[in-house]
Design a protein that fits this description.
It is built from 11 helices and 7 strands. 37% of the residues lie in helices and 15% in strands. Strands 3-2-1-4-5-7-6 form a 7-stranded mixed beta sheet, with helices on both faces. Helix 5 links the parallel strand 1 and strand 2. Helix 8 packs antiparallel against helix 11 and helix 10 packs antiparallel against helix 11. The chain is of the alpha/beta class.
């Protein structure tokens, strides 16, 4: 729940400040949330998030424009020094994810979900790793590489783009591969996981988080379809069971395989609560409100889908065992 802060509650004359209306909208109130006079959202950027379905990233506001990148960097910043992520958890969440892999400065890692590169640069600077980094989103990669150059990490933390349909990786190279919330958008998941497995050194780890269905019937639920409608491309969802079967069929030893939806929902809500608490009234221009609402529409749908139990945020750690693995 996105909670109200002191001073945002309804006044004696019935006026409800904008930020309080936003909180109520997030928590299920379907009343319009446009502000008074100078603050109003464009048609389609207010009210019921399930009422909006568009066809392109540009229409949904989910293309990685400079405006959206700047907004998301602020939204998901855990601190002022940690504002180079565009997804929940901040760069320190990477430390938590990689902990089971027991990496050190002598190890090499591959990140196939580099995003804006904040996590990659943390792996290089904070953990001293040798990192190969890539992401399927060309626009995001371009901005990520500029940040690496600006931080003096162009050689140690270069970020490139890849096509999931034609993914090729060097064999027997990496001690760990990180794949964070990317597989659900890929069509041939089995081929991708097989390619990743072949890139691992013996004893190497695959650390994966992803959105999967609880059962093969979950994809038809209202919360899940509301979320998938907001995705710029239709996700290729599969079940937890199917995912585990493919991992084991590829010769990987699954060490942990958990439904971490509660943790992820907490990260979403904490990010938005911190963001809302930091807003100032003078920031609430029409343009800013529209940007905020387009982003909020996506995350409120995802949070509700996870809360329904039909969609699962999967956290998996798998190893390439010592025994030979056939192709």
């Amino acid at each position: 729940m996105v909670r109200a802060r002191h001073g945002d509650a309804e006044s004696d004359d019935g006026y409800i400040p904008f930020l309080e209306r936003f909180r109520r909208w997030w928590n299920g109130d379907r009343a319009p949330i446009s502000g008074d006079g100078s603050v109003s959202a464009e048609p389609g950027a207010e009210g019921d998030p399930e009422a909006i379905t568009r066809d392109s990233p540009e229409d949904t506001g989910l293309a990685w424009t400079e405006k959206r990148v700047s907004f998301c960097r602020r939204l998901w910043a855990i601190s002022d020094e940690d504002n180079e992520m565009v997804e929940p958890g901040g760069a320190r969440y990477i430390d938590t994810l990689l902990q089971p892999a027991a990496l050190n400065s002598s190890k090499s890692a591959l990140d196939l979900s580099a995003g804006l590169g904040g996590g990659v640069r943390r792996m290089v600077g904070g953990l001293g790793l040798w990192v190969t980094a890539s992401d399927p989103d060309r626009e995001l990669v371009g901005r990520a590489q500029k940040l690496s150059v600006r931080r003096g990490l162009a050689k140690r933390a270069p970020i490139t783009v890849y096509d999931p349909d034609t993914l090729e990786l060097p064999e027997n190279k990496f001690h760990a591969v990180l794949l964070r919330e990317r597989l659900f958008r890929m069509r041939d998941k089995q081929a991708v996981l097989k390619t990743i497995r072949m890139s691992l050194k013996t004893g190497g780890s695959l650390i994966m988080t992803d959105f999967v269905l609880a059962t093969d019937k979950s994809g038809a639920s209202d919360p899940v379809t509301a979320w998938t409608a907001r995705e710029t491309e239709a996700p290729h969802l599969w079940t937890m069971e199917a995912c585990r079967d493919v991992l084991e069929g590829a010769g990987l030893q699954v060490r942990s395989f958990e439904d971490a939806s509660t943790r992820y929902r907490q990260m979403i809500l904490a990010g938005w609560a911190q963001f809302i608490d930091g807003l100032k009234r003078e920031e609430l221009t029409r343009d800013f409100v529209n940007t905020m609402m387009r982003e909020a529409e996506y995350w409120v749908r995802l949070e509700r889908a996870l809360g329904s139990g039909e969609l699962v945020y999967l956290h998996c750690h798998a190893l390439l065992p010592n025994a030979p693995v056939t192709r």
